[in-house]
Write a structure and sequence with these properties.
It is a single chain. This protein has 2 domains: 2-96 and 292-306, ATPase, nucleotide binding domain (Nucleotidyltransferase, domain 5, 2-Layer Sandwich); 108-278, conserved archaeal protein q6m145 (Nucleotidyltransferase, domain 5). It is α/β, with parallel strands linked by helices. The protein has 11 helices and 13 strands. It is globular. It has helices spanning 32-36, 59-73, 98-106, 131-134, 139-145, 182-188, 209-218, 224-258, 270-277, 283-286, 293-306, and strands at residues 2-6, 10-15, 18-23, 44-48, 78-80, 86-87, 113-118, 123-127, 148-149, 164-167, 170-173, 262-266, 280-281. Helix 3 crosses helix 11.
């Protein structure tokens, strides 16, 4: 069996050979069914969050399209919903269930923990001992509960978290254009490598530290030679401070409310936030598949239920 996680930007597949990640921007008409043809003929368990892509008029339209695309390639696929059940037809519960299946997989062995899964676009904060209370939550409710923080390691517009930076002692408002992404800040700060920068750059340019510094300078409407490397790094550090504060506060709140005693981190930001919050990375528990946790989790939950356990 394979596990499939269909996000708005990435298609993640887990099978016995490991993890495959395909950049698959649904809002740009990515050929999902064609990509999945590579995996035809094998049973599959699927979870999604891509139904929120703005190419769809509604979540239900997105669910129908995704289910149809999957079934075109893999007719017998089953789909995990926020009711913690598997479905074979489009259903409203299929919307954004990827975080819940991660909790479903981990909750028995790690009931004393909060899971922080920081991906390219979002951070999921999941108290694993609250599984029954988590069932049925929409993304809107998760935002309200601070279980979903809409910022990630790669695709966040720097200007969404930063309104001004101080350059040479002068408070400087930023442009709200999409000049630089979180990937640029994390790259120049050494949190990720160029190889980790898997989404397109805001200018569709190079994914090097020098190119990232140029993009960060544009956030304050400058060329790099105007504010220098230190000025661009100031923009990156200001973004990281804001992002870290937002995520850390949400984690601390979840741990307090749930009574959890420890933190497990997953996703591309796992190592970084494990250091920041004295947590343990899921990579230490399940290996490289932690980079595609929902895809791995939906596979394991389906196998567990098929085996009657």
């Amino acid at each position: 069996m394979i596990g499939i996680d269909i996000g708005g930007a990435n298609l993640k597949i887990v099978d016995d050979t490991g993890v495959q990640i395909h950049y698959c921007p649904l809002w740009q008409g990515a050929p999902l069914a064609d990509l999945l043809e590579l995996y035809a003929g094998r049973p599959a368990a699927v979870v999604m969050s891509g139904e929120l892509a703005d190419c769809f008029a509604s979540k239900m339209d997105g669910i129908r399209w995704i289910v149809g695309a999957v079934q075109e390639a893999i007719p017998d696929a089953v789909f995990y919903g926020t009711d913690a059940l598997f479905h074979t037809r489009p259903d409203p519960s299929l919307a954004a269930a990827n975080w819940l299946v991660s909790a479903d997989y981990l909750r028995e062995d790690h009931a004393d923990a909060v899971l922080l899964d920081v991906g390219s676009t979002t951070a999921d904060i999941i108290p694993l001992n609250r599984f029954e209370d988590l069932k049925g939550l929409t993304d809107t409710r998760r935002l309200q509960e601070h279980y979903l923080v809409y910022t990630g390691m790669l695709r966040t517009n720097v200007a969404t978290l930063v309104s001004s930076v101080t350059l040479d002692g002068t408070p400087t408002p930023v442009s709200t254009e999409y000049f630089a992404a979180s990937a640029d800040a994390h790259l120049v700060l050494g949190h990720i490598s160029s190889g980790d920068y898997t989404c397109p750059a805001p200018d569709n340019g190079e994914k090097t530290p020098d190119a990232a510094l140029r993009r960060l300078a544009r956030v304050v409407c400058a060329d790099l030679d105007e504010i220098g490397r230190d000025g661009a790094l100031t923009v990156a550090r200001r973004f990281w401070d804001a992002q870290r504060t937002l995520i850390v506060r949400a984690v601390e709140d979840a741990m307090t409310r749930s009574g959890a005693g420890r933190l497990i981190t997953a996703g591309i930001g796992a190592d970084l936030f494990a250091c920041e919050l004295s947590g343990t990375t899921l990579d230490d528990v399940i290996g490289e598949v932690s980079d595609a946790l929902p895809a791995y989790a939906v596979r394991e939950v389906a196998l567990r239920r098929a085996g009657g356990t």
